[in-house]
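Most newcomers find our protein records easier to grasp once they have seen one. The structure tokens are whole numbers drawn from a learned vocabulary of backbone shapes. The record below serves as our worked example for the rest of this section.
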Amino acid sequence: MTTGATNQRTQVDFFDCTGKPDGNYVHPHDCTMFMSCVAGQYAYERMSADCHVDPDNCPTGRLHYDHAQNACLWSYEAGCVTDPAGAMGVAPNYI
């Protein structure tokens, strides 16, 4: 199953978009979320789309973000990998 993300996004300061092209990136701590960079400086945390809870396909009720395909997929398709280094070593702070 491939689907888009929800339109919900929250600007944050714990992810560094400096020098990164506009686009989506792996979330530092949560496979059901991803980061969007805008204008090389603004970071937004976004949620993957909801799905019906299913122990095999959707154990958390949300699809997982797959960076290689830039899509939200079933958890077993996405192969969850987070990127703690992208978080600049600080706790989330929502703007």
User: Anything to note?
Assistant: The CA atoms of residues 29 and 58 lie 18 Å apart.
